[in-house]
C-alpha cells in the first residue's frame, strides 16, 4: 500500500470513528512532506562549502567540500564523518600550506573512501584522488598533472576500480561552477588510482559520472550551443562504452540557459537535474529531465519559489538528484534572491532557504520541504541522500548550524514520506 493510500485510510478511519461522516473527507488535507528529525553543523572557523555526501555502510554520514586555509588565501579539502545521528566522529582537512586544494566528490568502498578534487603532489596541482581509510587516515594520494589547472568533479566505483570525470587545461586554480574553457575527460583507474585508460571528452568539463547497469559509463555536463539566433547553455548526457569510447551524445534545453549538475540511474533510463531559464517562470528554476536508455527525452519539469515572491528575482538552484525506491525523484536545491536582484532589503527571501522537492515517477510534484531561518542566516541544500530508513539527509551550506563561524556544513535529517510538519 503506498503512502497516499495509507494516509487516506487513516483519515477515513478517524472520520468514521468520530462520526464525522464521509462528507468531511472532501475537506481533509494531508501533508505528505517529511518532518525534521535533527540538524547538526560541523566545520571550522574558516568557513566551508559542501559539494556531496552520502550515508555510509555503518549507518553514519560523510560529506566532502572545501574550507579556507588557516591564515591564507587558498583552500583545503574537508571531509566530515558523523554517526547515524549526525554527531561528529572525525573531520579531516587535506591540503598543503600555500596550495589551493578542494574536495569535490566522494564514494565509499569496502576499504574506505575515495575523494576526488584538486590536490597537490610534489608541488604540482592537478585533478587528483585521495584514499582515506575508515578512520579518515590518508592511505594514498594520486595527482594527474596536465596542462594548466584541472579537477576531478565526479567519481563512482567501477568494475576493477574507479571511474572519474572532470576537466584540465583551465586558466584558474579555483574550481568554477562550470569550466567553460576547460577540456573534459573521463578516466578509469585501478583500486589504487593507477590509470587504466583515459579519454578526452567533447565537453568543457565532465560534471558527474556513473557506472551504468546496462554496461559502460555515463557522463553529464553543461555545454554551449547556438540556436534561435543566440548562444545558450544546454544540459548534455554522454553514453560511453566499457573502454570509454563514445556511443552517443544528447543535449537537452531550450533557448535560455539550462545547466546540469547531477544525474542518477533509473530502471528505464536516466534522470538529470540542474536549473533552467528556458522552462521556468521567468528566472532560474530547479529543473528535472527524464530520458530513456538511449537518451531520448521523455519529459522535463521545473520547480521554484517555495516561499513565494517574484520568479524573476528568485534563483532556485538544484545541485543534487536521487531516484527513489517507488520510481520518483528528490531534488536538493537552494532558493533565494541574489544580491544583484534585491529591491526590498527587508524581504526575508534575501536570505536563502534549503529547498527539497519530491516528485512521482512522471515528475509531478508530491511535496516540497523548506528550511528557512532568515533572522539568523543563509541555508541552501547542496546535495541529498536517501537514507536506509526511507528518510532523507540534506547536506547544507549553512550559516545557522554548529558552534563555529558562519558558512559551515549542515546535516539535516528528514523523516520518510508521510504526514509531516
What does this structure look like?
With 421 residues, the chain is mainly β. Among the domains are: 1-30; 208-386. The protein is 4% helix and 53% strand. The protein has one helix and 28 strands. The protein has one helix at residues 3-17, and strands at residues 36-42, 48-55, 61-68, 75-82, 88-94, 102-109, 112-121, 124-132, 138-143, 149-158, 161-170, 183-189, 195-200, 208-211, 217-227, 230-240, 246-252, 258-266, 269-276, 285-292, 297-303, 314-323, 329-337, 353-359, 365-371, 379-386, 392-398, 408-414. The strands form seven sheets. Strands 1-28-27-26 form a four-stranded antiparallel beta sheet, with no helix packed on it. It has a four-stranded antiparallel beta sheet with strand order 2-3-4-5, with no helix packed on it. A hairpin with a 6-residue loop joins strand 3 (61-68) and strand 4.
Summarize, please.
The chain has one helix at 3-17; strands spanning 36-42, 48-55, 61-68, 75-82, 88-94, 102-109, 112-121, 124-132, 138-143, 149-158, 161-170, 183-189, 195-200, 208-211, 217-227, 230-240, 246-252, 258-266, 269-276, 285-292, 297-303, 314-323, 329-337, 353-359, 365-371, 379-386, 392-398, 408-414. The chain has 421 residues and is mostly beta strands.
Give the strand line-up of the largest sheet: 1-28-27-26
Beta-sheet strand percentage? over 45%
Low-pLDDT sequence parts: 1-20, 22-28
Q: What do the pLDDT scores average to?
A: 91
Gap from first CA to last CA? 22 Å
Strand segment tally: 28
Helix content: under 10%
**Which structural class fits the helix and strand makeup?**
mainly beta
Helices and strands, in order, run as: HEEEEEEEEEEEEEEEEEEEEEEEEEEEE
User: Judging from the principal axes of the Cα atoms, what is the shape?
Assistant: globular
The biggest beta sheet reads: 4 strands, antiparallel
Multimeric state of these chains? single chain
Amino acid at each position: 500500500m503506498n503512502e497516499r493510500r495509507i494516509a487516506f485510510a487513516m483519515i477515513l478511519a478517524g472520520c468514521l470513528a468520530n462520526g464525522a461522516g464521509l462528507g468531511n473527507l472532501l475537506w481533509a488535507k494531508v501533508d505528505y512532506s517529511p518532518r525534521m528529525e535533527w540538524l547538526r553543523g560541523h566545520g571550522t572557523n574558516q568557513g566551508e562549502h559542501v559539494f556531496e555526501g552520502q550515508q555510509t555502510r555503518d549507518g553514519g554520514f560523510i560529506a566532502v567540500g572545501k574550507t579556507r586555509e588557516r591564515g591564507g588565501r587558498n583552500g583545503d579539502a574537508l571531509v566530515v564523518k558523523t554517526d547515524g545521528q549526525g554527531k561528529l566522529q572525525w573531520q579531516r582537512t587535506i591540503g598543503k600550506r600555500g596550495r589551493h586544494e578542494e574536495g569535490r566528490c566522494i564514494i565509499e568502498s569496502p576499504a574506505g573512501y575515495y575523494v576526488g578534487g584538486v590536490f597537490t603532489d610534489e608541488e604540482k596541482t592537478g585533478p587528483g584522488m585521495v584514499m582515506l581509510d575508515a578512520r579518515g587516515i590518508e592511505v594514498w594520494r594520486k595527482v594527474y598533472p596536465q596542462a594548466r589547472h584541472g579537477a576531478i568533479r565526479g567519481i563512482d566505483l567501477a568494475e576493477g576500480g574507479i571511474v572519474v570525470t572532470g576537466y584540465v587545461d583551465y586558466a584558474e586554480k579555483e574550481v568554477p561552477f562550470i569550466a567553460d574553457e576547460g577540456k573534459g575527460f573521463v578516466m578509469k583507474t585501478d583500486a589504487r588510482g593507477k590509470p587504466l585508460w583515459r579519454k578526452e571528452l567533447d565537453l568543457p568539463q565532465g560534471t558527474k559520472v556513473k557506472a551504468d547497469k546496462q554496461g559502460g559509463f555515463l557522463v553529464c555536463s553543461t555545454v554551449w550551443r547556438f540556436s534561435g539566433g543566440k548562444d545558450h547553455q544546454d544540459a548534455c548526457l554522454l553514453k560511453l562504452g566499457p573502454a570509454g569510447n563514445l556511443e552517443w551524445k544528447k543535449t537537452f534545453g531550450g533557448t535560455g540557459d539550462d545547466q546540469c549538475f547531477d544525474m542518477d540511474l533509473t530502471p528505464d533510463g536516466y534522470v538529470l537535474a540542474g536549473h533552467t531559464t528556458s522552462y521556468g517562470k521567468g528566472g532560474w528554476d530547479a529543473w528535472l529531465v527524464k530520458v530513456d536508455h538511449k537518451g531520448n527525452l521523455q519529459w522535463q519539469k521545473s520547480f521554484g519559489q517555495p516561499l513565494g515572491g517574484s520568479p524573476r528575482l528568485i534563483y532556485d538552484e538544484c545541485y543534487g538528484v536521487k531516484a527513489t525506491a517507488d520510481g520518483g525523484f528528490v531534488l536538493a536545491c537552494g532558493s533565494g534572491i541574489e544580491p544583484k536582484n534585491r529591491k526590498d532589503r527587508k524581504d526575508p527571501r534575501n536570505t536563502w532557504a534549503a529547498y527539497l522537492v519530491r516528485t512521482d515517477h512522471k515528475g509531478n510534484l508530491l511535496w516540497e520541504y523548506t528550511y528557512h531561518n532568515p533572522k539568523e542566516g543563509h541555508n541552501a541544500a547542496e546535495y541529498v541522500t536517501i537514507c536506509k530508513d526511507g528518510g532523507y539527509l540534506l547536506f547544507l551550506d549553512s550559516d545557522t548550524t554548529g558552534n563555529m563561524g558562519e558558512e559551515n556544513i549542515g546535516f539535516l535529517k528528514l523523516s520518510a514520506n508521510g504526514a509531516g510538519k
